[in-house]
Every structure is written in C-alpha cells, then in structure tokens.
Amino acid sequence: MATVTASYFVSHIHGGAASVDSKSNLAQIGLRTQTVTHNGLRSVNKVDMLQLKSNVKAAAKKSRSMVKKTEKEGAPAKIVCGSGMNLVFISAEVGPWSKTGGLGDVLGGLPPAMAANGHRAMTVSPRYDQYRDAWDTSVVVEIQVGDRVEKVRFFHCYKRGVDRVFVDHPVFLEKVWGKTKSKIYGPTAGTDYQDNQLRFSLLCQAALLAPLVLNLNSSKYFSGPYGEDVIFIANDWHTALLPCYLKTMYQSRGIYMHAKVAFCIHNIAYQGRFAFSDFDLLNLPDEYKSSFDFVDGYAKPVKGRKINWMKAGILESDRVVTVSPYYAQELVSGVEKGVELDNIIRKTGITGIVNGMDTQEWNPATDKYIDCNYDITTVMDAKPLLKEALQAAVGLPVDRSIPVIGFIGRLEEQKGSDILVAAVSKFIGRNVQIIILGTGKKSFEQQIEQLEVSYPDKARGVAKFNVPLAHMITAGADFMLVPSRFEPCGLIQLHAMRYGTIPICASTGGLVDTVKEGYTGFHMGDFNVECATVDPADVLKIAAAVNRALAVYGTLALKEMIKNCMSQDLSWKGPAKNWELLLLSLGVAGSEPGIEGEEIAPLAKENVATP
Ligand SMILES: Nc1ncnc2c1ncn2[C@@H]1O[C@H](COP(=O)(O)OP(=O)(O)O[C@H]2O[C@H](CO)[C@@H](O)[C@H](O)[C@H]2O)[C@@H](O)[C@H]1O
Ligand SMILES: OC[C@H]1O[C@H](O[C@H]2[C@H](O)[C@@H](O)[C@@H](O[C@H]3[C@H](O)[C@@H](O)[C@@H](O)O[C@@H]3CO)O[C@@H]2CO)[C@H](O)[C@@H](O)[C@@H]1O
Fold first, then answer.
1. Are 293 and 441 contained in the same domain?
2. Residue ranges in the chain modelled with pLDDT below 50
3. What pLDDT does residue 4 have?
4. Backbone torsions φ then ψ of 63, nearest 5 degrees
5. Residue to mutate (ligand 2; options 97, 99, 185; most atoms within 8 A of CB)
6. How high is the ipTM of this complex?
7. Is 605 within a domain?
8. How many CB atoms lie within 10 A of CB 523?
9. CDD domains, per this entry (predicted)?
C-alpha cells in the first residue's frame, strides 16, 4: 500500500491575477517558491511545514488586526470587522457555476448568507468549464492522487461576499466542459466515471490547501489567507475524504490543530460505495480502513465487501448535519430510510437544518425568464397570463381556465416520476393539464415523453435540463407535484410557494417541515421507499391528492393558500442563523458570532453574474 500521503508546493507564480494579489502576498506568507513535501515523494521538509504554519498564522493575524484598526478609526459600529468564523465549504457542485440539482443550489445560496452574517466564507469546487468570471490565481500546487503527482491550479472570483475558489485539473475540465447535468459525475445519468475516487480525492486535498496557500484580498474586512482556524463544511460523499486527510496529512504535523469539519448529507442515497481494494487509491493509512469498511448485499460495483466514503465522512467529521429536521429523524429511523448507515448515524448523532432558497434567482418580482413579473398583491392577475404563456411555450391548448400541474426534478427513483406517470391516467380525464420537466434515467425520460403521445392535449414531458422552462412552470402552473419516495429537503416546493404555486407533496423529509397541509399545500402521505417497483397504493395517493387540489381550484380557499405561500420568508436568512449556531458550537479558535454588516451584507445580496 502506498504510504505517501500528500505532496504540495507552490511552484510558480506569474502574478497579475485579478482578485488575488498572489505575488506579493504569497511572498508575505513565505510561500513564493517554497516546496513543502511529505514523506515519500521528496524528502520530508519539516522546517518548511513549520515555516508554513507560522507564516500563515502571522498573515491571518495581520489581516484581522488591520481590520480592527479600521474599526477604531471611526467606521460605523455595525460593520463586520474581522468578526465571525472562517468557513470553507467544499462541494462537487456550486451553483450557478455547476449544478445537477439541489446540491449546487445550496452551495450557491448558503455561503453568501453566512457572509451576510459577518463570516468569512469560501467555497472550493471543481472548475468544470472556462467560467467567464473566475480568474487564474497563478497558484499551482502538487497533489498526490493515487500513485501520481498532479499539478493543480486555483481559479478564483469574489461574488456576494464569498470567495469562490475553483480547482483546475483536466479530470474536471476535460470531462465535463459545461455547467450542468450529469456529466459532472459520469458520461450519462447512472454511469460514473471510472476515476471518480481519484477526482474527488484531488478535490478534498486541494480544499485543504486553499485556506493556506491562497492569499485572498477580496474584501477590505478580511485579507490574507484564511489560515488554520477554519471550519470545513464538507458536502456529500465526494468530500468525505477531507476529514481523513485533515488528520493524516495536517494535524499529525501540527497544522490545522483547531480546525473542525461539519459533514452535511444532502442525499443518503448516494454514498460512494466502491470495491474494498480501492482503499489503496486513497492514500490513507491502514488504520482508516475500518471507517470505510462496509458490507452490503448488492453486486454493484462489486459483490460483497466494499469501502463506503460517506460512512467514513460521517465517522471522521466533528459534526454531522443534514438538510431538514424530519429527514434527520428518518435517517436514524431504520435501515430503509437510513440506507444502511442508520446505525452509524445513530452513534454520531445528526442535526437537521432546513434549506433556504435563493430568493434572487427565484423572485417573481424580478424573474427574467417570465413575461410578467408579480408579487403577492398582483399574483391573481399575473398567474393567468403566465399560465397562457406556459401553455403556448409547450404547445398545449391555451386556456387560462384549465388548472395546470407542474413537475420539475431529476428523473431518478427518488423523485417518483414513475409513480406520477402511473397515476396520470387516474386524473387526466378531468379538466386539467400536466407539464413534466426533468432529465435523468433514460427509461424515465422515455416515460414522460410517452405521456404526450398518449394525451396530446393534456400532457407534456420535456426531457431537458432547461432553466428558463423551470421558471416558467414554477410561475405559470397552479400546482406543483412533488411525489418523492424520499426528499432530504427539496427546493422545488420552496420555489413553487414563493411563486404562489401550491405544492402537492409526499410526506417525507423536508417536505414535511416546509409544507403545511391545507395552509400552504397538500400532503399525500409517505410513499413506499422500495425503488424497484411502483406501489399501487402510492399511485392512488397521488390521484386522491390531485383530486383534492382540483376541488379547491378557482375558490377563495385556493386564493388564501396562495397568499399564505407567498407571505413566508423562505430565504437563507433563518437557516443561516441556525448554521451559525451549529458551527459556533464547534468552538474553533477565534470564532465569534457574526454581525450583520452594512457593507458585507449588501455584497452578499448583490446579484451573481452568470459564469
Ligand atoms: N430539468 C431541469 N431543468 C432545470 N432545472 C432543474 C431540472 N431538474 C432539476 N432542476 C433544478 O434542480 C434543483 C433541484 O433541487 P432539489 O433540492 O429539489 O433536489 P435534488 O434532489 O437535486 O437535491 C438534493 O439536495 C438538495 C439540497 O440539499 C435537497 O434539497 C434535496 O432534497 C436533495 O435530494 C432545483 O433548483 C430545480 O429547479
Ligand atoms: O444536486 C443533485 C444531486 O447531486 C449529487 O448526486 C450525484 C451523486 O452524488 C453521484 O454519485 C451521481 O449518482 C449516480 C451514482 O453514482 C450511480 O452509481 C447511479 O446510481 O446513478 C446516480 C445518478 O446518476 O450523480 C448524482 C446526481 O445525479 C448529490 O450527491 C445529491 O445530494 C444531489 O441530490
């Protein structure tokens, strides 16, 4: 087994990066031409490691003291001045730069909300495309991945108060060349890249380097490297190696001694299960094998004993979080909903914090994808017009008196599009139209496309990833169906409610926490989580709930529900406060509660440029 754990160095600095003053600042922390290597690759250079440690500390201290001086010079009291925590979010998706679904949305929205609360926030994600707004920092590091040493560059931009860091390497850019859809994880939905473990090992290692080697001077309140006193927020299985590498590569050498890791589960269905022998690819000491060790009854990707990345992420992190309180309960309820990690999560404990939504991208008053903008006072006039525009756009008969039901989501078993397709015949005879938008499994895409062949005047199935159409459906439909077998949080119902579109949802996960029966939506009860078959009882649940919803269409009761939906605050503001409390409880050195800043907050609220 490889004993080499990691190698990195800042090899070459060209200068001239837009938002990172690399040349002078790296010199300031002593990283300009410094080579820092760990055992194996080159000789261990402990002096350099210690130097790195003290230089980063000094630079971080300096940035905070500069800030304090500004405060003394009479800046308004409510300004964020070096208060708060240093937060480093790591994820395979960060919207709007990369997104296959809700994971990208959360990484797009939560970090700016934390910045608006006075914290310093960075995201680290792969550079899948030539993002127009992210610049080469010229900082290059070497990382040991499997048995190879790879050169990795960091790109960067500063948006809405957040340092967006992109890890540049051909395993990301050459494979994907785009922002969305399943190419992030594999060539087609359901197929993974063979080298995903190496790709995400590289991401985790790069994320551990970013706070040390990037000297970011994007904001006048925070400058210099983030330093060692950081909290890493690792998201889903792709980032599960981060807490392991933190211990084996850094803490064992006296670096990042006070850093902590919160591991957030967005979907327990994807755990990163691989052949047990693949452990050797991960560059981790043998003593970590037990954290990954996992036996299941499935033959995929190999029969029998496996490694399970998510299991290790849960066990090796300091705190486990998920995206709604009800999903947290479901995860520990048993094998079925905890997907065989329930026993592990019962040991570690888990906290559920419901997601917020991006209220800028999803704002009916400013939405650029819809013909007519509206708010709670004009919704009843605008919606019929938007419905007609939607019907025309998808080629359905244009008639504002027909109730329209929408569905948007990844076409995987989770989302229950197969159950919905089976239920359509049970209600389509009524005065109703249905529009389904989604991509994913080929067989599910064919099912939704077949609907419009069967019901040409009543149904449309669009197998595309289409953001404008997603907005048009959210605005123009009367009801949004969310028939998920399981749903950690769900953003579709949040978007729908903000647009006055009433959710009809399965009673699972975050749908339970966010939709109130008869007040902001309709609940269908929980569905069978067995994914291989469509349970006839669930088909009937959909049909019954649709009938209930259609019964209130055009009544005052529906108008009331629309107002109830639209008057809620569904933004990241509340969730970000809950995240703050949770992260503060980790007790990282220098962490303070954030203060909503007059300068950082507007930055965090400013619109994101399209990458
Ligand atoms: N064909 C298409 N065209 C355009 N846009 C499309 C689309 N298909 C999906 N989307 C968009 O993708 C997002 C889906 O987000 P969700 O949170 O509802 O589900 P997802 O399962 O991906 O996320 C997972 O992570 C999130 C975040 O934690 C949890 O809320 C969720 O329960 C969990 O399953 C929405 O922004 C939606 O508009
Ligand atoms: O934001 C949407 C979701 O994105 C992530 O899910 C991806 C998952 O992590 C990947 O592993 C992959 O899943 C495939 C899986 O690996 C494969 O064996 C097969 O079962 O098909 C799966 C689907 O293609 O792609 C997922 C996205 O489609 C994130 O982990 C989730 O939390 C998000 O819901």
1. no
2. 1-47, 62, 64-81, 609
3. 22
4. -65, -35
5. 185
6. 0.97
7. no
8. 20
9. GT5_Glycogen_synthase_DULL1-like
